[in-house]
Amino acid sequence: MKWKITVFLVALGVSSQANDVAAQNFFNGNDLLMHCQPRSTSVTGYVVGAIDVYRIANAISPHSVFGMCVPKNATAAQVSDVFCKYIIENPAQRHYAAGSLVWTAMNEAWPCPAP
Question: pTM value?
Fold first, then answer.
């Protein structure tokens, strides 16, 4: 019985930490919007960095829920333009974490083929 309580407390602690991390995003769409017109290297760097992280996650776990099908020959300027277009055209979404908006914008522009 004692081990069940320990497992419960550890799980509760991990769950609480995950919620704290999710609530502490560095940037949201509103923060990056001002870097879209004109497009700055700040927004380009953020978008390319986020895409790299998603690609690494997919390489580590091919069945990752974070699938992303950005063409391999897409340029940094192109993916940045796709992101900026998305947040300009979807103002109701701008309060979300910028990293999740990158994923959404890329998947709307280049949806992955059905398995």
Answer: 0.76
Q: Are the C-beta atoms of 106 and 64 separated by less than 8 Å?
A: no
- One-letter amino acid for residue 109 of the chain: A
> CB-based contacts of 48: which residues, under 8 Å, 6+ apart?
76, 79, 80
Beta-bridged to residue 39, according to DSSP, are 36
CA 46, 49, 53 angle in degrees (round to 5)? Answer: 135
Highest mean pLDDT among 10-14, 100-104, 111-115: 100-104
- Residue appearing with tokens 């974070």: 66
C-alpha–C-alpha distance, residues 68 and 53, integer Å: 11
Give CA–CA dist 29/11, Å, rounded: 32
How many whole angstroms separate alpha carbon 9 and alpha carbon 4?
A: 9
Q: Which of 87, 88, 78, 89 is nearest to 48 (CA)?
A: 78
What angle, 0 to 180 degrees and rounded to 10, lies between the N-to-C axes of helices 41-60 and 76-89?
A: 100
**Residue 32 identity:** L
